[in-house]
């Protein structure tokens, strides 16, 4: 009998100790997120990077998988254009992008266009569009249909185009040089998209919408 009572006492002590340890342990987190689950808190979503729009691309142009390189396909000449997916942001600041001329350099226009511009014409010709051509002329401004005497561009040159959104002044650059565009204004920056037009087979360009460092230091040039 004493042996039985002794074993019962030990059993009760062990049970009590287990209960105390269980009570002291923190309760499980019922709403804990999985380690790899994305947050749905107040973090701002990352803006989608701009690129050429396959839905706003002439059928005679081909786009690279990342939608940054445009190439003239086929053997027949003719005007073919492509617009970017995102339009200019309507607020103060600078909107700017650059285009590297990879191959050919005849009949290339780099600029800004409305959504309504046909894809079988060149940017700068259609109303409300603006462009810098490889022949060294600016197109699309009210003062004159085109302004000649500007620097021509060739393969491996990098051409920049943008808008000072507060003043609506258009911006053109060639490599590391800012070109004179005083008094050249756009009508409505909020309705414009980056646009490139090509005329000859074999023409190829690559756009930089800000994923890489720009050739021209646009921020420094317009620092207040």
UniProtKB/TrEMBL annotation:
It comes from Globodera rostochiensis (Golden nematode worm). CDD domains: SPRY_RanBP_like. Residues 30-214 form the B30.2/SPRY domain. Residues 24-51 are annotated as: Disordered. InterPro entries: B30.2/SPRY, B30.2/SPRY_sf, ConA-like_dom_sf, FBXO45-Fsn/SPSB_families, Gid1/RanBPM/SPLA_SPRY, SPRY_dom. Transmembrane segments: none annotated. The keyword Signal applies. The keyword Signal applies. It holds the Pfam family SPRY. PANTHER family: SPRY DOMAIN CONTAINING SOCS BOX PROTEIN (PTHR12245), SPRY DOMAIN-CONTAINING SOCS BOX PROTEIN 3 (PTHR12245:SF5). Keywords: Signal. It comes from the Eukaryota. This is Secreted SPRY domain-containing protein 18. Residues 1-16 form the signal peptide.
């Amino acid at each position: 009998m004493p042996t039985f009572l002794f074993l019962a006492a030990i059993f009760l002590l062990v049970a009590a100790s287990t209960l105390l340890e269980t009570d002291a342990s923190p309760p499980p987190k019922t709403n804990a997120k999985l380690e790899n689950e994305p947050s749905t808190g107040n973090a701002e979503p990352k803006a989608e990077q701009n690129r050429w729009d396959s839905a706003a691309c002439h059928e005679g142009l081909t786009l690279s998988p990342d939608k940054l390189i445009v190439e003239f396909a086929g053997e027949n000449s003719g005007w073919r254009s492509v617009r970017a997916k995102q339009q200019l942001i309507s607020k103060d600041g600078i909107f700017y992008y650059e285009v590297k001329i990879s191959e050919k350099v005849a009949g290339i226009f780099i600029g800004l266009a409305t959504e309504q511009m046909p894809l079988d014409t060149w940017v700068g010709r259609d109303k409300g569009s603006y462009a810098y051509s490889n022949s060294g002329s600016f197109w699309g401004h009210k003062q004159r249909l085109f302004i000649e005497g500007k620097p021509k561009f060739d393969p491996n040159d990098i051409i920049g185009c943008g808008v000072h959104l507060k003043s609506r002044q258009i911006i053109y650059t060639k490599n590391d040089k800012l070109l004179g565009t005083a008094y050249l204004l756009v009508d409505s920056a909020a309705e414009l998209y980056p646009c490139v037009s090509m005329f000859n087979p074999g023409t190829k360009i690559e756009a930089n919408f800000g994923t890489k460092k720009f050739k021209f230091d646009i921020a420094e040039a317009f620092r207040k």
